[in-house]
């Protein structure tokens, strides 16, 4: 795609207040593939004012009409399926097949779920002698990450529009091109001017301006826990609502009765997907001491199948990480793991290619629960394998981080797995490889965030409640 040079504000592509731009770099070959406008505070203010002006009419639009616009948006995204996938591959480095199935396919499906929810949700209900109204929060400032760039946009914007809110979106600076495609789809869908606005820019400038703006009623942020804390503090000082989807260090608990081969192979695949750049990835694999050595061998063999290379090559199962900073960060964690005494059984810190931000798929054995690589989010294709003595020990290790976003449990008996999962301090647990459900609430415990995304629970984040007594 040819990038737009301006910002999408009040229903039109508009030049930014300054001539500053942001380079977009292909992480596979380190070549610049485009430039986008770098919004400043003046641009963010213009976008918020447009959203504020559009709010009364959009909030008063009947839910069925909002649903029709979301259906049109879903269809506009579906018509761009191939272009979306190619764009994500170019700016994120995701293998093209994965980009088509997940980066393009999932947000189209999620947009469809919110079109249906907008039409069927009970925005009014009777409770005794009261009528309870579920009304839009107002103007939403949405700040999205680069790892699943379109999915995270849709997971915020679609429920906000379904609720009757208006939106200002600040996408990640590494992946702004797919956000521009989304804006084009919104425009084509006939969403009224000002209801959705896009400001590309840097987080410390445009993101901070959006979080601080007095005209924003709710800030929805997905990203690191460190930045989430800053946004939470900023919003709290203004008594402004926040929805925060933050970091993770999820445990993949393999109980002794499980199918060990399946559990290990699916666990490795889970982490290697998207080059490990998934906040909910099961990056800690917990195995009973009696099965640990076999599991290590299985994991090393599975990781060897993930060839890091050109994301357009069908033989490549692992693309690059997103940028030079992330490349250095992930390899630094691998080096730290070696220094702290963990044993590499696959991969390592060496770059597999001289050009491109590629990282070897890496498996660590002999990892102790207190090691840095078992406590901190690496955000790369790295798995820490940890042994446990019994279920109590496994539960202690699984719950022994500041995070609680996702996880998995494997057992020969489903009830056994469910019993363990109920005791995990985490927001979502997959049982024996349970499939992703785009209607299930997604979000974390502890420092993994506040609030939920997806399905009806995601819609309620953008609603506030009023009761009328008769």
Architecture overview:
It is a single chain. 41% of the residues lie in helices and 20% in strands. The protein has 470 residues and is an alpha/beta fold. The strands form five sheets. The protein has a seven-stranded mixed β-sheet, with helices on both faces. The longest helix is centred in the N-terminal third of the chain and has 25 residues, at 96-120. The protein is globular and about 65 Å long. The termini are far apart.
Task: Provide a concise account of the structure shown.
This protein is an alpha/beta fold.
Share of residues in helices: 40-55%
Report, as a whole number of angstroms, the end-to-end distance.
Answer: 56 Å
Categorize the overall geometry.
globular
SSE-based structural type: alpha/beta
Strand content: 15-25%
Strand count, sense and closure of the main sheet? 7 strands, mixed
